[in-house]
Specification:
Strand content: 15-25%
Number of strands: 5
Number of helices: 4
Distance between the termini: 33 Å
Helix content: 25-40%
Structural class: alpha+beta
Radius of gyration: 13 Å
Oligomer: single chain
Strand order of the largest sheet: 1-2-3-4-5
């Protein structure tokens, strides 16, 4: 069992998720998207609280998608939450299909669209 980080995320959970860098999402930070794996909660994505390509399970925010994107754990600035919300709106169908196990990580990546213009790191 891996150590629990801020936001209630373990390194094991992140291992099961697809990590997406700013060059793919247009966001200024890394985002993780994964299938539900029987989770007792609705669809969520994990978002680094720091900008750049660093991945640190102890520095994550958890963002629930429904009924509208909202921070479940951790912290995001208002600007970062707006950007993540914009990215989720653009890619909601692809994220939900992956959450529901209808697509794998490669299919998810093929369907994702970056926000435009990308947010500078």
């Amino acid at each position: 069992m891996s150590e629990l980080g801020r936001g209630g995320t373990t390194a094991d959970e992140l291992f099961l998720m697809t990590n997406l860098f700013p060059a793919t999402t247009g966001l200024p930070m890394v985002v993780w998207v994964g299938p539900s794996y029987g989770a007792p909660h609705d669809v969520r994505v994990k978002v680094m609280q720091a900008h750049g390509t660093r991945m640190d399970p102890g520095n994550l925010a958890v963002v629930g998608l429904r009924p509208r994107p909202h921070v479940v754990a951790g912290r995001l600035s208002a600007a970062d939450l707006r950007a993540v919300t914009q990215w989720i709106a653009l890619n909601e169908k692809a994220i939900l299909d992956h959450w529901n196990g209808l697509t794998d990580g490669a299919q998810l990546a093929q369907r994702l669209q970056p926000i435009s213009p990308p947010i500078p790191p």
